[in-house]
Amino acid sequence: MKFSVLSTLVANALSVSAGTILWDGRFNDMSSATDLNNWSWGNQVGPYQYYIHGSSSVTSYVNLSPDFKNPADSGSKQGAKITLDNTAYWNGQNMRRTELIPQTTAAINQGKVFYHFSLMRKDTNAPATTREHQIAFFESHFTELKSGWQSGAPGVSDPLLRWCIGGQTKWSTEWVAGVWHNVAYEIDFGANTVGFWHSTGSDALTQKIAPAGASTSSNGADWHVGVLELPRSGYSDSNEDYYWSGVYIESGSITTSVAGPGSPPGGGVSSSSSSSTTKVPVTSSTTLVTSTKTTSKVSTTSTTSSAPAVSTTPSGCAAAQWSQCAGIGYSGCTSCAAPATCKYVNDWYSQCL
Predict the structure, then answer these.
(1) Are residues 346 and 207 in the same domain?
(2) Is residue 23 part of a domain?
(3) Where is this chain compositionally biased, Low complexity type (predicted)?
(4) How many domains does the chain have?
(5) What is the mean predicted confidence (pLDDT) over 279-305?
(6) What DSSP character marks residue 316?
(7) Taking residues 17-46, what's their average pLDDT?
(8) Is 38 helix (H, G, I), strand (E, B) or coil?
(9) Residue 335 binned pLDDT confidence (cut-offs 50, 70, 90)
């Protein structure tokens, strides 16, 4: 009997924590969202870089509470509500966005890793179905979630939450209020593949899409925990709330339990010492918006936007890698420092890649 009980406890422990946590973004070491204000380029502390947001106070865009987490996520003491309001315009752009970036020197962009998070919406301040939203994305947009009407698609609105590789929909479901969607991106940076794991509520993650080829490009400081909303003429802003829980990155075998793994020593939070922080230079625009070529359960028509309007290039100017280099209303460098080249994404954004 004792052996049976011990075996059960061991099996349960293994089912909860199968991998090794590389970075822990579950907000366990934060007393409130105002802790994000402690981070700066000169003082890179805490689990997140906080610079992509509007001009109001941090609590206009990020708030923490036990009420904001998936109840099945016992590894998190609280979750985050990330908000877009009428001030959520970063750095003079015309796209609303609130995003957090992992602050870590861990090898989250090497080998085979799993990027975990849970996401939920409510009927109150629901994300608009009439605009494209890019969620939990990388700068090169090789994989991400999207919601709402997809740029270039026919029709007016789209109720789906979808997972994409390179802007192409590989999985989708109707995004219903009050349902927690548990997600893991299975990324093999060496093999250049990405797969998709998913469940709802308290159910264990299962693989929905087997690893497929992708341009897995990341510098380890470009995964965006948050949302970017593309502009659309004729559709006014409204407040939107996105609820996040169980955000962490692990290597090894995937943790399929939504309860999540135990916290590592120190909670995976970087200190201000040089040995535990990454100082990555940032230009005025660090994030590209995704391709308008879209595959949808609502419509299977794919469209490609025309070439972007490009402003006059400043004399002798070359944008650094990862920087914006073209787009409507853009007035910066339109050539890139070698070896990067300017890659078209859509009419609003091209990036040095």
Answers:
(1) no
(2) yes
(3) 270-313
(4) 2
(5) 33
(6) T
(7) 94
(8) helix
(9) confident
